[in-house]
Every structure is written in C-alpha cells, then in structure tokens.
Amino acid sequence: MSTLESVIWHILGYSAMPFIILSGFAVVAAICLWILSLGKDKHVE
C-alpha cells in the first residue's frame, strides 16, 4: 500500500469513528426510551 493510500485509509477510519460511536449512543438511547415507554402507565387522570 502506498503512503497516499495509507493516509486516505487513516483519515477515513478516524473520521468514521465519531459517527459510529455517536450513532451507537443514539440507537441505545432510542431502545432504552422505547423499553421505558412500554412500562409507562397510560392512564392520565
């Protein structure tokens, strides 16, 4: 692999990491909120 290819792959890898981490947090938060909403009492008095 040439130096240019190595640099490109490093840039792609490091720029993808925050996206992967943040999207993972968002998915886990959405699943947790959905599970919590299942147990919520639907009656409003």
Secondary structure topology:
Elements: H1 3-38
Tag the structure with descriptive keywords.
45 residues, mainly alpha, 1 helix
Walkthrough of the structure:
The protein has one helix and no strands. The model has no long low-confidence stretch (mean pLDDT 89). The chain is 80% helix and 0% strand. By secondary structure, it is mainly alpha-helical. It has one helix at 3-38.
Instruction: Indicate the low-confidence ranges by residue numbers.
Output: none
Shape: rod-shaped
Q: The biggest beta sheet, please?
A: none
Cα distance spanning the termini = 67 Å
DSSP, total strands: 0
**How large, in whole angstroms, is the Cα Rg?**
20 Å
The arrangement of helices and strands along the chain is: H
Helix count, DSSP H or I runs of 4 or more residues: 1
Class by SSE composition: mainly alpha
Strand content: under 5%
Mean pLDDT metric: 89
Q: Which percent bin holds the helix content?
A: over 70%
Sum this structure up briefly.
80% of the residues lie in helices and 0% in strands.
